[in-house]
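User: I'll paste a sequence; please echo it back and then give the predicted structure.

Assistant: Echoing your sequence first, then the prediction.
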Amino acid sequence: MSADTDPGRPTTRIQREKQEVILEAALEIFSQYGFRGSTIDQIAEAAGMSKPNLLYYFKSKEDILAPILARILDTWLEPLRELDAEGDPLPELQSYIRRKLEMSRDYPRESRLFANEMLRGAPDFSNVLHNELKDLVDEKAKIIKGWMARGKIAKCDPYHLIFAIWSTTQHYADFDIQVRAVLGKERGGDGRFEDAARFLDQLFLHGLSPKK
């Protein structure tokens, strides 16, 4: 049994450090080659350890992938959790859009890995998507509907609003090479994220402003 799955054995500091090295290496490999295209040998090499040593901590690729995906989803959902029903709707949504865009800038590997998992049907993640993710989106969609009912923002489908925010912000991570190629050297640097933020503010906040 691998060190990370033995409930009867306390994990030492060194073991936790080794596990973190493996997870970091696996994130790099998975984000480059996808889960199916990656091998334990590649991950072990990236982690600077032998394959048998890696398998002491994680017995399979699936065992390595599970905690990585759990962390990614937790990180991805944190800004949505902070959407406050008592807050001013447009600033609340602006803050959410900005934070999602910052995540695309700061966590491009995680975004690409998550997107790849969705494309392959999320076989190891289906339960979380149908429960934790759905419950949170249902909760926040209810908040958005409440804002609409009080005339705070224009009426629209709150679920598709959330989907649109996800797709437009994560585009800058998942298609970063395309974005930089099209923008060119002058506009494809770090400033592209601030340019994107200004445009998305205009797109969403203007569209959501209540009609007079």
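The CA atoms of residues 20 and 47 lie 10 Å apart. The chain has a mean pLDDT of 89.
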